[in-house]
Amino acid sequence: MKIAVVIGVRPHYVKLAAFYAPLAARHEVCVVNTGQHFDYDMTQTFIDELGLPPVTFDLGIGSGSHLEQTGRAIVALEQPLLSSRPDAVIVIGDTNSSLAGAIAAAKLGLPVAHVEAGIRSFEADLPEETNRLAIDAVSSLHLCPTEKALLNMRAEARGETARLVGDLLLDVLDLQQQKLQERLSVWRRELPDLDQSAVVTFHRSATVRDESILSAIVAGLLAFSRPIICILHPGTKQALQRAGLLEKLASMPAIRLLGPQRHADLLALIAGADRVLSDSNGVQREALFVQTPCFILRDSTEYPETIEMGAAELIGTDTQNIVRSATTRLKMPPIDDVRRAFGDGRAGQRIVEAVSSVLQVAT
Ligand code: UD1
Fold first, then answer.
1. Which residues line ligand 1 (CB under 6 A)?
2. Whose CA is nearest to atom 20 of ligand 1?
Protein backbone atom coordinates (compact mmCIF):
# COMPACT_ATOMS: atom_id res chain seq x y z
CA MET A 1 0.00 0.00 0.00
CA LYS A 2 0.94 3.62 -0.30
CA ILE A 3 0.50 5.49 2.98
CA ALA A 4 0.55 9.27 3.38
CA VAL A 5 1.46 10.65 6.81
CA VAL A 6 0.39 14.24 7.46
CA ILE A 7 2.64 16.12 9.87
CA GLY A 8 3.04 19.81 10.71
CA VAL A 9 4.28 20.49 14.23
CA ARG A 10 7.35 19.65 16.28
CA PRO A 11 5.94 16.63 18.18
CA HIS A 12 4.85 15.05 14.89
CA TYR A 13 8.50 14.67 13.85
CA VAL A 14 9.27 13.03 17.18
CA LYS A 15 6.34 10.59 16.95
CA LEU A 16 6.94 9.82 13.26
CA ALA A 17 10.46 8.73 14.24
CA ALA A 18 8.90 5.87 16.22
CA PHE A 19 7.03 4.31 13.30
CA TYR A 20 8.60 5.59 10.07
CA ALA A 21 11.13 2.74 9.72
CA PRO A 22 8.68 -0.17 10.31
CA LEU A 23 6.08 1.56 8.11
CA ALA A 24 8.55 2.17 5.27
CA ALA A 25 9.71 -1.46 5.52
CA ARG A 26 6.20 -2.63 4.51
CA HIS A 27 4.70 0.22 2.49
CA GLU A 28 5.52 3.13 0.24
CA VAL A 29 5.42 6.18 2.52
CA CYS A 30 4.75 9.76 1.52
CA VAL A 31 5.24 12.43 4.21
CA VAL A 32 3.20 15.59 3.76
CA ASN A 33 4.27 18.49 5.97
CA THR A 34 1.71 21.29 6.33
CA GLY A 35 4.42 23.62 7.66
CA GLN A 36 2.37 24.73 10.68
CA HIS A 37 5.71 24.93 12.50
CA PHE A 38 8.42 26.54 10.41
CA ASP A 39 11.39 27.72 12.49
CA TYR A 40 14.53 25.71 11.78
CA ASP A 41 14.81 24.61 15.41
CA MET A 42 11.15 23.48 15.43
CA THR A 43 11.46 21.42 12.22
CA GLN A 44 14.74 20.62 10.42
CA THR A 45 16.61 20.12 13.70
CA PHE A 46 14.30 17.17 14.41
CA ILE A 47 14.56 15.71 10.91
CA ASP A 48 18.35 15.70 11.32
CA GLU A 49 18.39 14.54 14.94
CA LEU A 50 15.91 11.70 14.47
CA GLY A 51 17.21 10.55 11.07
CA LEU A 52 13.90 11.17 9.29
CA PRO A 53 13.78 11.29 5.49
CA PRO A 54 13.16 14.64 3.80
CA VAL A 55 9.42 15.32 3.56
CA THR A 56 7.76 14.53 0.22
CA PHE A 57 5.55 17.65 0.14
CA ASP A 58 6.13 20.87 2.08
CA LEU A 59 3.04 23.07 2.12
CA GLY A 60 4.32 26.07 4.08
CA ILE A 61 1.01 27.12 5.66
CA GLY A 62 2.64 28.81 8.69
CA SER A 63 0.80 30.58 11.51
CA GLY A 64 -2.60 32.25 11.72
CA SER A 65 -5.86 32.03 13.63
CA HIS A 66 -7.12 28.50 14.18
CA LEU A 67 -9.53 28.84 11.26
CA GLU A 68 -6.99 30.38 8.88
CA GLN A 69 -4.42 27.75 9.73
CA THR A 70 -6.83 24.80 9.46
CA GLY A 71 -8.51 26.15 6.34
CA ARG A 72 -5.23 26.89 4.56
CA ALA A 73 -3.96 23.41 5.39
CA ILE A 74 -7.11 21.66 4.11
CA VAL A 75 -6.92 23.51 0.79
CA ALA A 76 -3.16 23.00 0.48
CA LEU A 77 -3.49 19.25 1.10
CA GLU A 78 -5.79 18.63 -1.87
CA GLN A 79 -3.18 18.53 -4.64
CA PRO A 80 -0.55 16.44 -2.82
CA LEU A 81 -3.17 13.89 -1.79
CA LEU A 82 -4.65 13.79 -5.30
CA SER A 83 -1.29 13.47 -7.01
CA SER A 84 0.25 10.92 -4.64
CA ARG A 85 -2.94 8.80 -4.51
CA PRO A 86 -2.33 7.10 -1.16
CA ASP A 87 -4.40 4.09 -0.07
CA ALA A 88 -4.70 5.56 3.43
CA VAL A 89 -3.70 8.64 5.40
CA ILE A 90 -2.23 8.66 8.92
CA VAL A 91 -2.73 11.72 11.13
CA ILE A 92 -1.20 12.14 14.58
CA GLY A 93 -2.63 13.87 17.65
CA ASP A 94 -4.91 16.86 17.94
CA THR A 95 -3.31 19.81 16.18
CA ASN A 96 -4.83 21.98 13.46
CA SER A 97 -2.63 20.14 10.94
CA SER A 98 -3.95 16.77 12.13
CA LEU A 99 -7.54 18.00 11.76
CA ALA A 100 -6.83 19.37 8.29
CA GLY A 101 -5.22 16.07 7.26
CA ALA A 102 -8.18 14.05 8.49
CA ILE A 103 -10.82 16.28 6.85
CA ALA A 104 -8.94 16.53 3.55
CA ALA A 105 -8.45 12.76 3.38
CA ALA A 106 -12.04 11.99 4.35
CA LYS A 107 -13.37 14.46 1.75
CA LEU A 108 -11.27 12.69 -0.89
CA GLY A 109 -12.68 9.34 0.22
CA LEU A 110 -9.41 8.07 1.71
CA PRO A 111 -9.39 5.97 4.90
CA VAL A 112 -7.92 7.86 7.86
CA ALA A 113 -5.93 6.24 10.67
CA HIS A 114 -5.73 8.40 13.78
CA VAL A 115 -2.72 7.98 16.04
CA GLU A 116 -3.56 9.08 19.63
CA ALA A 117 -7.27 8.45 19.07
CA GLY A 118 -9.67 8.48 22.00
CA ILE A 119 -7.69 10.99 24.04
CA ARG A 120 -10.09 13.41 25.75
CA SER A 121 -9.77 16.26 28.25
CA PHE A 122 -13.57 16.72 28.35
CA GLU A 123 -13.10 20.49 28.08
CA ALA A 124 -15.35 21.46 25.20
CA ASP A 125 -13.81 24.90 24.65
CA LEU A 126 -10.23 23.68 24.14
CA PRO A 127 -9.22 23.90 20.46
CA GLU A 128 -7.39 20.58 20.71
CA GLU A 129 -10.52 18.84 22.09
CA THR A 130 -12.58 20.07 19.13
CA ASN A 131 -9.86 18.75 16.83
CA ARG A 132 -9.78 15.33 18.54
CA LEU A 133 -13.55 14.89 18.37
CA ALA A 134 -13.67 15.87 14.70
CA ILE A 135 -10.67 13.71 13.73
CA ASP A 136 -12.06 10.64 15.48
CA ALA A 137 -15.44 11.24 13.80
CA VAL A 138 -13.95 10.90 10.30
CA SER A 139 -11.32 8.22 11.01
CA SER A 140 -11.68 4.57 9.98
CA LEU A 141 -9.01 3.31 12.36
CA HIS A 142 -8.57 4.59 15.92
CA LEU A 143 -5.11 3.89 17.33
CA CYS A 144 -5.34 4.43 21.09
CA PRO A 145 -2.28 5.13 23.25
CA THR A 146 -3.87 4.06 26.56
CA GLU A 147 -6.57 1.81 27.94
CA LYS A 148 -8.59 4.91 28.92
CA ALA A 149 -8.46 6.19 25.36
CA LEU A 150 -9.73 2.80 24.19
CA LEU A 151 -12.59 2.99 26.71
CA ASN A 152 -13.44 6.48 25.46
CA MET A 153 -13.66 5.13 21.93
CA ARG A 154 -15.94 2.30 23.09
CA ALA A 155 -18.11 4.84 24.95
CA GLU A 156 -18.41 6.80 21.71
CA ALA A 157 -19.40 3.62 19.83
CA ARG A 158 -16.05 3.40 18.00
CA GLY A 159 -14.84 0.25 19.77
CA GLU A 160 -14.94 -1.81 16.55
CA THR A 161 -12.36 0.36 14.83
CA ALA A 162 -10.26 1.07 17.93
CA ARG A 163 -6.98 -0.69 18.74
CA LEU A 164 -4.84 -0.30 21.86
CA VAL A 165 -1.31 0.34 20.57
CA GLY A 166 0.52 2.26 23.32
CA ASP A 167 2.27 5.60 23.42
CA LEU A 168 4.82 6.47 20.72
CA LEU A 169 6.65 8.79 23.12
CA LEU A 170 7.78 5.74 25.10
CA ASP A 171 9.14 4.15 21.89
CA VAL A 172 11.04 7.35 21.14
CA LEU A 173 12.46 7.53 24.65
CA ASP A 174 13.87 4.02 24.16
CA LEU A 175 15.37 5.04 20.80
CA GLN A 176 16.90 8.15 22.36
CA GLN A 177 18.18 6.52 25.58
CA GLN A 178 21.89 6.57 24.71
CA LYS A 179 21.84 10.15 23.40
CA LEU A 180 19.81 11.17 26.46
CA GLN A 181 22.55 9.86 28.78
CA GLU A 182 25.28 11.60 26.74
CA ARG A 183 23.42 14.91 26.77
CA LEU A 184 22.62 14.54 30.49
CA SER A 185 26.34 14.42 31.30
CA VAL A 186 26.84 17.61 29.28
CA TRP A 187 23.91 19.42 30.92
CA ARG A 188 25.08 18.37 34.41
CA ARG A 189 28.40 20.08 33.73
CA GLU A 190 26.68 23.14 32.25
CA LEU A 191 24.04 23.43 35.00
CA PRO A 192 25.56 22.11 38.25
CA ASP A 193 22.28 22.64 40.13
CA LEU A 194 20.17 20.77 37.53
CA ASP A 195 19.22 18.08 40.06
CA GLN A 196 17.69 20.76 42.32
CA SER A 197 15.95 22.62 39.50
CA ALA A 198 12.52 22.71 37.92
CA VAL A 199 12.22 22.47 34.14
CA VAL A 200 9.34 24.68 33.02
CA THR A 201 7.55 24.71 29.64
CA PHE A 202 4.23 26.24 28.57
CA HIS A 203 2.96 27.01 25.09
CA ARG A 204 -0.70 25.98 24.69
CA SER A 205 -2.88 28.70 23.22
CA ALA A 206 -5.21 28.38 26.25
CA THR A 207 -2.21 29.38 28.41
CA VAL A 208 -0.40 32.01 26.36
CA ARG A 209 -3.25 33.91 24.67
CA ASP A 210 -4.49 35.39 27.98
CA GLU A 211 -2.16 37.98 29.55
CA SER A 212 -3.63 37.55 33.03
CA ILE A 213 -2.78 33.81 32.93
CA LEU A 214 0.72 34.59 31.69
CA SER A 215 1.22 37.17 34.47
CA ALA A 216 0.05 34.70 37.12
CA ILE A 217 2.51 32.06 35.85
CA VAL A 218 5.39 34.54 35.71
CA ALA A 219 4.61 35.77 39.24
CA GLY A 220 4.74 32.13 40.42
CA LEU A 221 8.08 31.56 38.71
CA LEU A 222 9.57 34.78 40.12
CA ALA A 223 8.68 33.64 43.67
CA PHE A 224 9.72 30.00 43.11
CA SER A 225 12.12 28.61 45.73
CA ARG A 226 14.24 26.56 43.30
CA PRO A 227 16.37 27.29 40.26
CA ILE A 228 14.31 27.20 37.07
CA ILE A 229 15.18 26.15 33.53
CA CYS A 230 12.48 27.65 31.36
CA ILE A 231 12.36 26.26 27.80
CA LEU A 232 10.50 28.71 25.58
CA HIS A 233 8.43 27.81 22.50
CA PRO A 234 8.74 30.70 19.98
CA GLY A 235 5.02 31.49 20.44
CA THR A 236 5.49 31.70 24.23
CA LYS A 237 8.47 34.00 23.82
CA GLN A 238 6.43 36.31 21.58
CA ALA A 239 3.49 36.31 24.01
CA LEU A 240 5.77 37.08 26.99
CA GLN A 241 7.44 39.87 25.01
CA ARG A 242 4.07 41.41 24.05
CA ALA A 243 2.96 41.32 27.70
CA GLY A 244 6.25 42.91 28.88
CA LEU A 245 7.00 39.80 30.98
CA LEU A 246 10.05 38.38 29.21
CA GLU A 247 12.44 40.93 30.74
CA LYS A 248 11.16 40.14 34.22
CA LEU A 249 11.94 36.47 33.77
CA ALA A 250 15.28 37.24 32.12
CA SER A 251 16.34 39.52 35.00
CA MET A 252 16.13 36.74 37.61
CA PRO A 253 19.50 35.02 38.20
CA ALA A 254 17.72 31.82 39.36
CA ILE A 255 15.84 31.55 36.05
CA ARG A 256 17.68 30.25 33.00
CA LEU A 257 15.82 30.91 29.74
CA LEU A 258 16.46 28.50 26.87
CA GLY A 259 15.04 28.32 23.34
CA PRO A 260 13.56 25.20 21.72
CA GLN A 261 15.72 22.16 22.47
CA ARG A 262 16.54 19.09 20.44
CA HIS A 263 14.54 16.11 21.64
CA ALA A 264 17.45 14.31 23.37
CA ASP A 265 18.30 17.56 25.19
CA LEU A 266 14.72 18.08 26.31
CA LEU A 267 14.59 14.50 27.62
CA ALA A 268 17.96 14.93 29.34
CA LEU A 269 16.89 18.15 31.05
CA ILE A 270 13.62 16.57 32.22
CA ALA A 271 15.41 13.44 33.42
CA GLY A 272 18.08 15.42 35.27
CA ALA A 273 15.76 17.93 36.94
CA ASP A 274 14.12 17.57 40.34
CA ARG A 275 10.67 18.36 38.91
CA VAL A 276 8.83 19.62 35.85
CA LEU A 277 6.09 22.24 35.46
CA SER A 278 4.34 22.08 32.09
CA ASP A 279 1.08 22.48 30.19
CA SER A 280 2.21 20.00 27.52
CA ASN A 281 0.75 16.51 27.69
CA GLY A 282 3.83 15.23 25.84
CA VAL A 283 6.22 16.61 28.45
CA GLN A 284 3.89 15.29 31.17
CA ARG A 285 4.20 11.73 29.79
CA GLU A 286 7.94 12.05 29.14
CA ALA A 287 8.44 13.20 32.74
CA LEU A 288 6.62 10.07 33.92
CA PHE A 289 8.72 7.85 31.64
CA VAL A 290 12.00 9.27 33.01
CA GLN A 291 10.63 9.24 36.58
CA THR A 292 10.53 12.98 37.25
CA PRO A 293 7.49 14.44 39.07
CA CYS A 294 5.33 16.76 36.95
CA PHE A 295 3.13 19.66 38.05
CA ILE A 296 0.61 20.32 35.32
CA LEU A 297 -0.11 23.99 34.54
CA ARG A 298 -3.72 23.17 33.59
CA ASP A 299 -7.04 22.33 35.23
CA SER A 300 -7.52 19.08 33.31
CA THR A 301 -5.45 16.48 31.50
CA GLU A 302 -5.90 13.98 28.69
CA TYR A 303 -3.59 11.58 30.52
CA PRO A 304 -5.12 11.14 34.02
CA GLU A 305 -3.00 7.97 34.40
CA THR A 306 -0.03 10.20 35.29
CA ILE A 307 -2.02 11.58 38.25
CA GLU A 308 -3.55 8.26 39.30
CA MET A 309 -0.03 6.78 39.39
CA GLY A 310 0.98 9.59 41.78
CA ALA A 311 3.57 11.05 39.38
CA ALA A 312 1.76 14.27 38.48
CA GLU A 313 -0.56 16.86 39.96
CA LEU A 314 -2.90 19.38 38.34
CA ILE A 315 -1.99 22.82 39.72
CA GLY A 316 -3.56 25.14 37.13
CA THR A 317 -1.99 28.55 36.59
CA ASP A 318 -2.61 30.11 40.01
CA THR A 319 0.48 31.92 41.36
CA GLN A 320 0.30 30.40 44.86
CA ASN A 321 -0.13 26.86 43.53
CA ILE A 322 2.95 27.34 41.36
CA VAL A 323 4.97 28.62 44.33
CA ARG A 324 3.80 25.68 46.48
CA SER A 325 4.74 23.17 43.80
CA ALA A 326 8.43 23.98 44.40
CA THR A 327 8.30 21.92 47.60
CA THR A 328 5.48 19.37 47.16
CA ARG A 329 6.77 15.79 47.20
CA LEU A 330 5.39 13.20 44.78
CA LYS A 331 6.25 9.50 44.90
CA MET A 332 7.06 7.97 41.52
CA PRO A 333 5.43 4.65 40.57
CA PRO A 334 7.50 1.55 39.63
CA ILE A 335 8.79 1.96 36.07
CA ASP A 336 7.50 -1.50 35.03
CA ASP A 337 3.91 -0.43 35.83
CA VAL A 338 4.43 2.76 33.83
CA ARG A 339 5.83 0.94 30.80
CA ARG A 340 3.04 -1.63 30.84
CA ALA A 341 0.35 1.09 30.96
CA PHE A 342 1.90 2.95 28.02
CA GLY A 343 2.61 0.08 25.62
CA ASP A 344 6.12 -1.08 26.57
CA GLY A 345 7.80 0.96 23.83
CA ARG A 346 6.23 -1.09 21.02
CA ALA A 347 3.51 1.32 19.88
CA GLY A 348 5.17 2.00 16.51
CA GLN A 349 5.21 -1.68 15.57
CA ARG A 350 1.57 -2.13 16.63
CA ILE A 351 0.51 0.93 14.64
CA VAL A 352 2.12 -0.44 11.50
CA GLU A 353 0.50 -3.86 12.05
CA ALA A 354 -2.95 -2.32 12.58
CA VAL A 355 -2.66 0.00 9.59
CA SER A 356 -1.44 -2.87 7.39
CA SER A 357 -4.10 -5.37 8.38
CA VAL A 358 -7.20 -3.23 8.97
CA LEU A 359 -6.79 -0.71 6.17
CA GLN A 360 -5.66 -3.31 3.65
CA VAL A 361 -8.99 -5.03 4.15
CA ALA A 362 -10.85 -1.72 3.81
CA THR A 363 -9.17 -0.67 0.53
C1 UD1 B 1 0.40 23.48 18.27
C2 UD1 B 1 -0.83 22.66 18.65
C3 UD1 B 1 -0.69 22.16 20.07
C4 UD1 B 1 0.59 21.36 20.20
C5 UD1 B 1 1.77 22.20 19.73
C6 UD1 B 1 3.03 21.39 19.73
C7 UD1 B 1 -2.86 23.42 17.50
C8 UD1 B 1 -4.22 23.96 17.73
N9 UD1 B 1 -2.04 23.44 18.59
O10 UD1 B 1 0.48 24.58 19.16
O11 UD1 B 1 -1.78 21.31 20.38
O12 UD1 B 1 0.78 21.00 21.56
O13 UD1 B 1 1.55 22.66 18.38
O14 UD1 B 1 4.17 22.21 19.68
O15 UD1 B 1 -2.55 22.97 16.43
N16 UD1 B 1 5.65 29.89 16.09
C17 UD1 B 1 6.88 30.29 15.63
N18 UD1 B 1 7.66 29.38 14.96
C19 UD1 B 1 7.25 28.08 14.75
C20 UD1 B 1 5.98 27.71 15.22
C21 UD1 B 1 5.20 28.60 15.89
O22 UD1 B 1 7.28 31.43 15.79
O23 UD1 B 1 8.00 27.32 14.15
C24 UD1 B 1 4.82 30.86 16.81
C25 UD1 B 1 3.89 31.62 15.90
O26 UD1 B 1 3.88 32.94 16.29
C27 UD1 B 1 2.53 31.03 16.19
C28 UD1 B 1 2.67 30.53 17.62
O29 UD1 B 1 4.04 30.18 17.77
O30 UD1 B 1 1.51 31.95 16.03
C31 UD1 B 1 1.80 29.34 17.93
O32 UD1 B 1 2.03 28.35 16.96
P33 UD1 B 1 0.85 27.41 16.43
O34 UD1 B 1 1.33 26.57 15.32
O35 UD1 B 1 -0.36 28.25 16.17
O36 UD1 B 1 0.46 26.51 17.66
P37 UD1 B 1 1.35 25.87 18.82
O38 UD1 B 1 1.24 26.74 20.04
O39 UD1 B 1 2.71 25.52 18.37
1. 9-11, 36-39, 42, 63, 66, 94-96, 127-128, 203, 205, 234-235, 238
2. 37
Report helix, strand and coil shares of the chain as percent, to nearest 5.
50, 15, 35
* Residue 130, phi then psi, degrees to nearest 5: -55, -45
Q: Ligand 1 pocket test: which of 58, 95, 214 has the largest number of ligand atoms within 8 Å of its C-beta?
A: 95
Give the tens place of pLDDT for each residue, 4-34. Answer: 999 999 999 999 999 999 999 999 999 999 9
Catalytic residue among 12, 27, 37, 203: 203
Ligand 1 atom at minimum distance from 97 CA: 15
> Count of alpha carbons within 13 Å of 329, Cβ hemisphere only?
1
Closest alpha carbon to 324 in 221, 230, 253? 221
Kind of pairing between the strands at 198-201 and 112-115: unpaired
Determine which residue's CA is closest to atom 33 belonging to ligand 1: 63
DSSP 304: T
**Which pTM value belongs to this model?**
0.96
* Eight-state DSSP code of residue 359: I
Protein residue with its CA nearest to atom 19 in ligand 1: 37
Q: Which pLDDT score is estimated for 60?
A: 97
| pLDDT band, residue 267 (cuts 50/70/90) | very high
Count CB neighbours of 171 within 10 A.
24
Across residues 168-172, what is the average pLDDT? Answer: 98
